[in-house]
Amino acid sequence: MSVEWIASILQGAVQIGTIYLFASLGEIYAERSGILNLGIEGMMIMGAAISFLFTLAYGHLAAILAALVIGMVLGLILGVMAVSLRLNQVVVGLALTIFGTGMSGFLTHPTIRAGVLRTLNPHIPESLLAIQEAPKLPEMPIPILSNIPVVGRAFFSHNILVYISYILSIFMWFILFKTRIGLSIRSVGENPGMADAMGVNVFLVRYLTSMLCGAFASLAGAYLFIGFHPFWQEGMTAGRGFIALALVILATWSPLRAIFGAYLFGGVEAIQYRLQVRGFGAQTPQFVLMLPYIVTIITLTSLSFESVRKRLGVPAALGVPYSREEV
Amino acid sequence: MPSHEYLVEMRGIVKRFPGVLANDHVDFDLKRGEVHALLGENGAGKTTLMNILYGLYRADEGEIYVRGKKVKIRSPKDAIKLGIGMVHQNFRLIPTHTVIENIVLGLKEVGFILNSKKLEQEIRELASSYGWRIDPSAKVWQLSAGEKQQVELLKALYRRAEILILDEPTSVLTPQETRALFNAIRRMAEEGKGVIFITHKLDEVMQVSDRVTVMRKGRVVVTKNTSDTNPAELANYMVGRPVIFTLQRKPMSPGKEVLRLKDVYAMSDKGVLALKGINLRIRKNEILGIAGVAGNGQIELAEVITGLRKVIKGKILINDVDATNKSPREIMELGVAYIPPENLRWGLVANLRVVDNLFLKAYRYPPYSNRVMINWKKIYDMADELIKKFEIVTPSKFTRTRALSGGNLQRLVLARELSGIIGGGVPDLIVAAYPTKGLDVAATEFVRKTLLRYREMGSGILLISEDLEEILMLSDRIGVIFDGRIVGEFKAEEADIERIGLLMAGAKVEAA
Amino acid sequence: MARYSFLGITVERRMTYSRIASILTTVIAIGLAFAAVAGILTAMRLDTYRAFGVILAVFITPRLLLQAILRGLPIILATLGLAIAFRMNFWNIGAEGQIYWGMIAATGVVLAHVYYGYLPDLLVLPTMLIASFIAGGVWCLIPAILKAKLNVNEILTTLMMNYIAALFVDYLIYGPWRDPHGYGFPLSIPFPSYAKLIFVAGNPSYTGLLLSIILAAIVYVIFRFTKLGFELRVIGENLDAARYAGITIPRVLMLGALLSGGLAGLGGLSIVSGIIGRLRPRASPGYGYTAIIVAWLAALNPWLIIPAGIFFGGLLVAGESLQATLKIPNAAVQILQGIIFLFIILGEFLKRYKISFGGGRGVR
């Protein structure tokens, strides 16, 4: 339990936690506006797959942009089905996850991948067509700050996406709670009827948050691959998208609390890897790993009490399609 | 030529709903600086009229002028743009947000960033100009009903509304809060705004309005300056003269007591007291009609008796058995039948078949089922009988219930509750809440005849209705409910329309 | 919300449902899904014809069909459970976790018997059946109690329970239940023959089919002829009316959840006893989630669930075959599943609403 070890864990916590952070930021916005996105897992893995392919074909920047685009498209599908067609969000989300998981496995499969890569970039070198690995995002330690013992390594020795995530979370917190747009988003999720009457375009807001959620979920997947573990494996998201759902609840729909939650989950995962490497076999502390889920259930239960719900609660209109009262 | 002295003019407004003419060529106007009361019972059409003005409904015929210009109001957004604000009975606020956040939602002028300091200042000043003290950064769930209403008003006032519609605003207020509200309304009028005040309470009309329009059955009965009239006259306009009795009620001597409420208190869904010490009793072979404008506790009364709402104080006795806070099933088994209001919402499952709804309560009792299994054959046979006996018009017993017309839906409910398939025989107590609302003439007559028939067969009936004629026609005794209390009780022969009307409107009348 | 419009399209709720139109819509949805996947395969310049040939072969070749039945067995059982839950509007996303607990219970019985030998060999399988049912049932009961007493959203709780269950399996398999003679691999001991489904009818597929039919019949009877079935329906359609009708809602919720989870638990039994023959991590490739799609596809009808489950089981078999023979990724089958699901949902929408063109913004 040396200082070295702690610093390493913290660094791992931030590294892994950033995956959860991106995903939950988007999901927070969606749920705040009343949309429950169970497709988050599918969007995340699509982002990872797309980033894999595009990194080989072009490079990191293209990968990130492509992931954002694909996420927005998937989010748009969710929007159309949940908002305009008023279909059941749970079912639509699950369908998107299954579809996304399948699509990602399909496109990256050795037999298909070559064709896809060549379509993307006809001049791609032969050597890249069959590898499972892509170049990782370079680490960019911040001068001076990264030399601080422990903290420096934990927070200031990462790649650019991590730094972006810092800024993004603060930014998104600010928008959600301190601006007119954020107020509109939150009101749509609490009482869409009232928001509608007061001039807010409920449908537009929900479309935009769906697309945002998709983009961020996809970005999380892209970060997972190029920023953390650039070795493609089918199904490499391993349910992290759904874990992000738990995280959003634990964070009671606030971007700032999501930061803590994300790094907490990241930390637990980091410890698990370290213990594995240390030769504890896979006799890892599963019960510790269960904790996040158990805590989430406890949080949900306490949120059902009136006194707690008033202060911290679930957006009242979450998961409920909105339609104007028609006469 | 319409002039700007009038903020609002509504001419020839017609609004039809299936089976009812809610607004029948209504004319209404509102002057600058005036408080105009809109008085009438429920079903009179006043809420419909104001919903049209606020863009929640669209009129079938007629024109609306705002400040002299003809306008089309298609939604509340349009109304708000025209400077019209409406405060409904159930507040449309977001409890977890602050006062400021509720008020400025959707306003573009506020700018991108919510500048709390400036907004707080503005709202505080605005509130105090009407005599209100509100903490703009408080969360709405922390506020009292009166303060919540102030937030609703501020929502409209902050948007520079000149025309304010208040729908039964005092129903959730304490006397002090009511006084504060009236002061604020007077101040608004002084500022040159126009206030429309929907109510059924006479004393409020007299206290705060300049003019009053009385509506009844979709028509405007009269529009007068408040100073030129008095409560008795208004009550008369509100209630009208009774129609000649077309149904014969056989005189019966009431039997033993089937229902007794002792000092019953209950809360409404809004968190205020709905029943404030109700005492009443009903005996076999007797109909007790509860007269009153909807929203004075009638639904809650029906629900506490049938086990759907908690009694927080007091006792309910059914056939001398303590039935306070028993479950709906236990009450059912004590011999109580319930005909709920809005049957498609509370009493029927729209997507199930007619036969399923007929046996919605009776399915669990022999001979229609044993411990585990349902005997559909017996049910199907009985269903055929019931459909015939209660004259339910339906393609078959397997038709989806939502396809039936309103009158047939009600026949279905009657068949289910009264036919004796639950426990056999005639129900000891029938609670009928607005049983003929929205029904056509034939169905209405059927329901009334049925109730009278069961009265003769031995049931005690609690009839809740907003149709005073119906109450007079069917009841042996009449109770008037106002603000959660029974404010008057009469035997049918002693019934005095005027006094009933006054009591319904909250006037204090000396005992006969 | 009977009627609304957007972008020049007016949508109106239908008053009558035609059985034929309903079935037709489902069939068209599946057909379109296949067409879409065919499009994707062709776009990737893969042998679409042969691929569909392989898929078709699964359902007409007896040997492969039996495999399809076996692989579809957990799906069928879990879906039967979901039919009960969904009928009362209890969104049981936790079928996966309930399956895992079924596996755990079944394995537990086997281990207890092998090491301590309490029961005669013949009774092991029935005991496993009961144990799996109870384990899965209890796992579903917990979120149901939270919903009944505290109105906690069951979608999220059941989802979380899945992860807890999977982790518990991992713990058991890497720990106390690891096969001491398994060369360190994370596997349980292989099940003795009397603990496997093959024992009953000589072929696990036959046993499975028999089991499915019996259970489908039971579920059918519950739905059509029991008080519980009626109550499930009323609660699912109109909660207020259910209260008014005197139904004790918490009791029905919990009983329904117990049955739902129990059936999923049996699905878990079928995996370790019929398909794999032992317990290992990741034993379920998302059967619990597939079951949700199948439940929708079969419109909660027990008799449709069996063919639908076999269909999806067949897709699994086809997927592996495609990968082995044609080098088409197994994932293609997942895409098919996802697209089928999406189109079925769209079909649901069309069944319930009528679309017409024209109609302005908002009212009228």
What is the beta-strand fraction of chain C?
under 5%
Main interface: chain pair and counts: A-C, 61 and 57 residues
N- and C-termini, Cα separation of chain C: 13 Å
What is the share of helical residues of chain C? Answer: over 70%
Q: Mind telling me the CATH class of the domain at 6-239 in chain B?
A: Alpha Beta
The CATH class designation of chain C is Mainly Alpha
Give the tally of β-strands of chain B.
20
Q: What's the rounded overall pLDDT mean of chain C? A: 86
Structural category of chain B is alpha/beta
| Total individual domains of chain C | 1
Placed side by side, the strands forming the largest sheet of chain B appear as 6-7-8-3-9-10
Total helical elements of chain B: 17
Radius of gyration of chain B using CA atoms only: 25 Å
Helix content class of chain B = 25-40%
Apparent shape of chain C: globular
What is the CATH architecture assignment of the domain at 6-239 in chain B?
A: 3-Layer(aba) Sandwich
Rough shape of chain B? globular
Mean pLDDT of chain B: 88
